[in-house]
Amino acid sequence: MVLEVGPGTGNLTVRILEKAKKTTVVEMDPRMAAELSKRVQGKPEQRKLDIMLGDFCKTDLPYFDVCISNTPYQISSPLVFKLLSHRPLFRCAILMFQREFALRLVARPGDNLWCRLSANVQLYSKVDHIMKVSRNSFRPPPQVESSVVRITPLNPPPAIPFEEFDGLTRIVFSRRNKTVRASFFDARGVIDMLESNYKTYCAVKEIMPEEGSFAEMVKQVLVDTGCAEDRAAKMDIDDLLKLLAAFHEKGIHFS
C-alpha cells in the first residue's frame, strides 16, 4: 500500500501504479485530481487508485506501508511530523524537499544545520539523504535545488511524548550557539511558563511545590546534569533526553 502526497497530474503516480498493489493519493487541487482521474480512466490502474481530495495536513490518513511525495515546500515540516505521528507505523517514506530543509533533517550535532527540526525528527526516525535533484529537472525550473530523503520510523518508537521533547528543544535551540543556561534565563517568559506548568502539575498530582525559588530549582537541574554551559548546537539527542528526564524528575514539564 502506497500513499502519495500531492500527485499533481500524476506523472509519478502512473509509475507507482506499475509497481504497487494499491495507491492512495492526497491532492488539494480539484483540477489536478480530475486530471489524474481522467488519466487512468478505463485502464487497469484505475482499480488500484484511490484519490482523496483535501488538505493533507487535515486529512485522516488510511493505512499505508510506504509514503512517496514530491512535497509542496510550504508543508514540509507539518508533513514530516504528521507522518511520524501516524499509527500504525509505516515502513518508510521517500520524500523530496527543498535542499536546505532536507539537509536539516539529516544534520548531526556540531553541523551548521543541526537544529530543533533535526533533533525532533531523529528522535523518532532514521533519516538518510538519497540524492540531489537539480532545479533543471523541472519545467519550469524552481528557484531552489531539491533533495530526496528516506525517513524510516524507529520501531518501537521511543516512549517520549513529542510535546515534551519539542517544548524542551524549542527553548534550547532558540539560541543554539548560546549556553543552555542563557536559553532558559535570558529569553523572556521561559521561567514564568515553566513555573506555571510546575504549579499545574503539583495541583493535579496533589503534591506541595518545593520550597524556595523556582528559578533556582531550574538552575540546579541545569548544573546537576552538566548542561548549563552546553550549547544546543553541539548537544546530541542523548544529552537532550538526559536533560528532559532530570526536569521531569522535579515535576517540571514543557507542555
How are the secondary structure elements laid out?
Elements lengths: L1 E4 L5 H9 L3 E5 L2 H11 L8 E5 L12 E5 L5 H10 L6 E7 H8 L9 H9 E9 L12 E8 L8 H11 L7 H6 L4 H16 L8 H11 L12 H13 L6
Summary tags:
RNA-binding; Helicase, Ruva Protein, domain 3; 255 residues; elongated; 7 strands; alpha/beta; Rossmann fold; seven-stranded mixed beta sheet; 41% helix
Mean pLDDT metric? 95
> Which fold name corresponds to the CATH topology of the largest domain?
Rossmann fold
Question: What is the molecular shape?
Answer: elongated
CATH superfamily of the largest domain: Vaccinia Virus protein VP39
- The helicity comes to 40-55%
Distance N to C terminus: 35 Å
Strand percentage = 15-25%
Overall number of domains? 2
- What's the architecture of the largest domain, going by CATH? 3-Layer(aba) Sandwich
Protein name: rRNA adenine N(6)-methyltransferase
Binding site for S-adenosyl-L-methionine: 1, 6, 27, 55, 70
Function: Specifically dimethylates two adjacent adenosines in the loop of a conserved hairpin near the 3'-end of 18S rRNA in the 40S particle.
Family: Belongs to the class I-like SAM-binding methyltransferase superfamily. rRNA adenine N(6)-methyltransferase family.
Describe the structure.
It is an enzyme of class 2 (transferase). Keywords: Methyltransferase, RNA-binding, rRNA processing, S-adenosyl-L-methionine, Transferase. Belongs to the class I-like SAM-binding methyltransferase superfamily. rRNA adenine N(6)-methyltransferase family. The protein has 255 residues and is an alpha/beta fold. It has 2 domains: 2-153, Rossmann fold (3-Layer(aba) Sandwich); 162-249, Helicase, Ruva Protein, domain 3, CATH 1.10.8. The chain has 10 helices and 7 strands. The protein has helices spanning 11-19, 30-40, 76-85, 99-106, 116-124, 162-172, 180-185, 190-205, 214-224, 237-249, and strands spanning 2-5, 23-27, 49-53, 66-70, 92-98, 125-133, 146-153. A 7-stranded mixed beta sheet has the order 3-2-1-4-5-7-6, sandwiched between helices. Strand 2, helix 2 (30-40) and strand 3 form a beta-alpha-beta unit. The longest helix is centred in the C-terminal third of the chain and has 16 residues, at 190-205.
